[in-house]
Write a structure and sequence with these properties.
The chain is α+β, with helices and mostly antiparallel strands and 292 residues long. It is built from ten helices and five strands; from the N terminus they run αααααααααβββββα. The termini are far apart.
């Protein structure tokens, strides 16, 4: 009986299997890059807005604080979009007839809100609480980037689950003193720009507010420095003792505080994790922490 397949069919079959594997792998890699690309995440895209609001002009140029417009960021799960009245507070006096502000004037006259396009838009099944993150030492620029340098607002980070998990696996790299939450240019402590922190439990005061940090050496107020080794942190740091009445401490306690000097972000972050009582990743076992 004659052979149905030629001897070369074996080689063709092997080549077909190899090519199929390469195609499948290439397709998977392509889709992986695609779902992380700005085409999907919308990073860097400037959305069309009814008014071309410039954060750089208002924040960096005029010196407005974030809380002036986003009033609920420290108290609510939502940062909040400012009402038209917030805009009119200033623009009833300046740029009153500017064409760019016509939607604002129309909103004020009709009582209908300006319809802004949301830039940082999470899926409906994701629960994100602004107040928790702000009050636990996460600065605005950690998530939103250098907003004070953006003429038009855009999304700095992916906001994908992987990005959130990377922070929760090692929150120390992003934690900062609560007094520096709205400091867009915060770079963390260094040998040339150290940070001194002290903590004291005060009944009835939120955990993060019991930590007092200063960019100025507390020893300049006449306190004596002494070396103190903290087992939970790597290295030995200088500790200063200062009283609450020295002007460097804002806590409602008259007892002496022991200041720890930090010269790198990792050490400061590990210290704040303990002081802020931030749960480690293995304790975040419930899915409804982030998904509702």
């Amino acid at each position: 009986m004659a052979q149905i397949f030629d001897r070369s069919s074996n080689s063709l079959a092997r080549i077909s299997l190899v090519l199929s594997g390469i195609i499948v792998i290439s397709l998977g890699v392509t889709l992986n890059y695609l779902q992380r690309s700005p085409w999907v995440t919308r990073q860097g895209q400037r959305a069309d807005q009814p008014v071309p609001f410039s954060h750089r002009h208002h924040v960096q140029g005029l010196g407005l604080q974030c809380q002036y417009c986003h009033t609920s960021v420290e108290k609510s799960s939502y940062a909040g979009i400012p009402p038209t009245k917030t805009c009119i507070n200033c623009h009833a006096q300046i740029w009153t007839n500017a064409d760019l502000l016509a939607p604002v004037r129309n909103s004020w006259a009709t009582g209908q809100s300006v319809v802004w396009t949301k830039v940082h838009d999470l899926p409906d099944y994701v629960y994100f609480n602004h107040s928790v993150h702000v009050n636990k030492g996460i600065g605005c620029s950690s998530c939103h980037g250098r907003v004070d340098e953006m003429p038009l607002m855009y999304q700095e980070n992916t906001l994908q689950m992987e990005w959130c998990l990377n922070c929760h696996r090692n929150p120390a790299k992003n934690l900062r003193p609560t007094s520096q939450i709205y400091q867009m240019a915060w770079q963390g402590p260094s040998s040339s720009a150290p940070v001194w922190c002290a903590s004291k439990d005060v009944p009835g005061v939120p955990t993060a507010q019991t930590v007092n940090c200063t960019l100025k050496d507390p020893a300049s107020n006449g306190a004596q420095l002494a070396a103190l080794e903290i087992p939970s942190l790597a290295g030995t740091y200088q500790v200063a003792t200062a009283s609450a009445g020295s002007g460097a401490v804002s806590l409602p306690a008259a007892a002496a505080l022991h200041y720890t000097k930090f010269t790198d972000q990792d050490a400061l972050g590990k210290y704040l994790i303990v002081q802020y009582h931030i749960r480690p990743p293995h304790e975040l076992t419930s899915c409804d922490t982030c998904h509702r």
